[in-house]
Amino acid sequence: MHELPITEQIVKTAARFCRENNGRRVHKVNMVIGDYSGYVGEAIQTYFGIIAEGTLCEGASLEFVKVEPKLRCTKCSKLFKKQPFTFECPYCGGQGEKSEVGSEFYIDTIEIE
């Protein structure tokens, strides 16, 4: 349910951007969402259509680029996708630890008319 307030902010931000740039309406909002961000894209998509009604975002599309989480090797520092049952780095055999990749959540671009 925490997707509701964040979706309200997405609509407000996109509408403000549209007004500040003399747009007629928001055409599309492109977002980046990491699998470990804590947000569910489908829920945001659903709320977006409802919250956007009667705003400059009404009828706009909301698109997501999903980011899969990656581990960072403690030995060689390379990023890699975790394989089942292991944290081993495929490049050097070191151990992987959680990285910032996969926690992203932000508006990438806003397209207006």
Structure description:
The protein has two helices and six strands, in the order αβαβββββ. With 113 residues, it is an alpha+beta fold. The protein has a three-stranded mixed β-sheet. α1 crosses α2. The model has no long low-confidence stretch (mean pLDDT 97).
List descriptors.
alpha+beta, 113 residues, three-stranded antiparallel sheet
Describe the structure concisely.
This protein is 26% helix and 28% strand.
Terminal Cα span: 31 Å
Gyration radius from CA atoms, angstroms: 18 Å
Which outline best applies? elongated
H and E string: HEHEEEEE
Write the layout of secondary structure elements.
Layout: H1 3-20, E1 26-34, H2 41-51, E2 61-67, E3 71-73, E4 79-80, E5 96-98, E6 105-112
Helix pairs in contact: 1-2
